[in-house]
Design brief:
Blueprint: H1 11-31, H2 35-47, E1 65-69, H3 79-83, E2 86-90, H4 91-99, H5 103-110, H6 123-126
Antiparallel strand pairs: 1-2
Length: about 130
């Protein structure tokens, strides 16, 4: 009569996908502890002057900072290319970041620290 057949996902496919996600997660965890990513972290810390790019706080203010990927376009490449995809943020802002849907572009347009004297947004950061 026009009803569509119901597609049933096989248990085998879901197990394969779970295994694949697990392997990718382990690969990522190994990478963020690698020498290559330590170099990326060093580049990001220097570029961002050791302060949270959301709130401007530093470790001397009692916050823990970490390097966060804005996107994963250059993941595993290391160097300047991957560092350009990263940002230095504190743990509080990292939590807020994960909860936001619009993430970096919203932050760049609305953060007072990214506006020049005329009030315009620094377009280099938002792209």
């Amino acid at each position: 009569m026009g009803s569509k057949p119901i597609k049933i996902r096989s248990d085998t496919k879901s197990k394969q996908k779970a295994k694949q996600r697990s392997e990718e997660y382990l690969k990522y965890q190994r990478y963020i502890r690698s020498k290559a990513f330590k170099e990326v972290k060093k580049l990001v810390w220097e570029r961002d002057n050791g302060e949270c790019q959301f709130c401007g706080r530093k470790p001397s203010d009692g916050v823990t900072l970490s390097v966060h990927h804005k996107c994963y376009r250059h993941l595993y490449e290391g160097g300047e290319k991957e560092a350009a995809d990263c940002i230095l943020i504190c743990s509080r802002e990292h939590k807020r970041w994960q909860d936001m849907k619009c993430n970096y572009k919203w932050f760049s347009r609305n953060n007072e620290r990214n506006k020049n004297e005329g009030g315009d947004t620094n377009q280099d950061i938002a792209t």
